[in-house]
Amino acid sequence: MKRIGFLSFGHWSDTRHSRTRSAADSLLQAIDLAVAAEELGADGAYFRVHHFARQLASPFALLAAIGARTSRIEIGTGVIDMRYENPLHMAEDAGAADLISGGRLQLGVSRGSPEQVIDGWRYFGYAPNEGDTDADMARKHTEVLLTVLQGKGFAQPNPQPMFANPPGLLRIEPHSPGLGERIWWGAGSNATATWAAKLGMNLMSSTLKDDEGGAPFHVQQAAQIRAFREAWAEAGWPREPRVSVSRSVFALVDDQDRAYFGREGDSADHVGYIDASTRAIFGRTYAGEPDVLVKQLAEDEAIAEADTLLLTVPNQLGVDYGSHVLESILTHVAPALGWR
Question: Which UniProt keywords apply (predicted)?
Answer without folding.
Answer: Monooxygenase, Oxidoreductase
